[in-house]
Amino acid sequence: MSTNPTSPRRWFRFRLRTLLIAVAVLAVPSAWVANQVHWIRQRQAVRQHSPPLPLHTMRSCFPKQAPSWLWLFREEGEWTIYWRPDSPYTKAHAMRLFPEARLVELP
Question: Exposed, middle or buried, 22 (CB in 10 Å: 0-12/13-18/19+)?
Fold first, then answer.
């Protein structure tokens, strides 16, 4: 019985450089998605600690689009962010997380 030295199953062959390029190409979009998800989590944390809305304030029936590409992750924009001096976040932090919103400082 003769044995064939070549295997009937062919394995892919590639260089280490090709592997490094493929990993880099996949890492860039993954890092972008992770950054967007982190931004959304920070926005949700600020919304949780935001003071309750005054009774005379109503949400608009026209939704505001979230900044950048956050709408791809179903993140909604905000028209107004309410801030008090005793809030756990600063005004600058709120404006950085919600660039589309108007900041209203409550007493």
Answer: exposed
